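Schema walkthrough. Field components (list of strings):
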Amino acid sequence: GQSLEQPSEVTAVEGAIVQINCTYQTSGFYGLSWYQQHDGGAPTFLSYNALDGLEETGRFSSFLSRSDSYGYLLLQELQMKDSASYFCAVDSNYQLIWGAGTKLIIKP
Amino acid sequence: NAGVTQTPKFQVLKTGQSMTLQCAQDMNHNSMYWYRQDPGMGLRLIYYSASEGTTDKGEVPNGYNVSRLNKREFSLRLESAAPSQTSVYFCASKDRLNTEAFFGQGTRLTVV
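Field assembly_structure (string):
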């Protein structure tokens, strides 16, 4: 079957850095995406990695290692508004397969 | 630019009733998706349409049917609603060559 594994919950302090890991096992792979979802809202796109390496977008960075079937999302200078759930998702043969999500709790 | 428009926002059904969730996108995307999200969980793919005229089952298709009416519209039908179908439903669209999926605002469905 196809699966993505990510931690269910991560806690960090405002202003700190946090890393959310994702490992995947899918029948096809075209890229790894990260999405943010606030309670009651729809997922919104954060970043995408099709090739190995680091992609940086402001305070957010995402990394991919295709040989290890592994990626992570790095959030820097955490703000209270970053409290949300974060999902990794794989483009696999026209499907978009999702992990169960990581709830990020930020403490002041 | 409306993006992905999904209706209705809220719906309460009695067991055995039927309904259709509507989704339309104005971004000329090829691929469209229907997901359900249960509390504290990720999105599970119900059906997807890689391009106009094609539909395929996802992870949890039982109890649902879909129609890709044209390139813009992708509807989800519950023929005989069951309490297990109580969930939040999201429609999404994505261009095959692009990276970002765009989501509708969600439909909160309760089956009693």
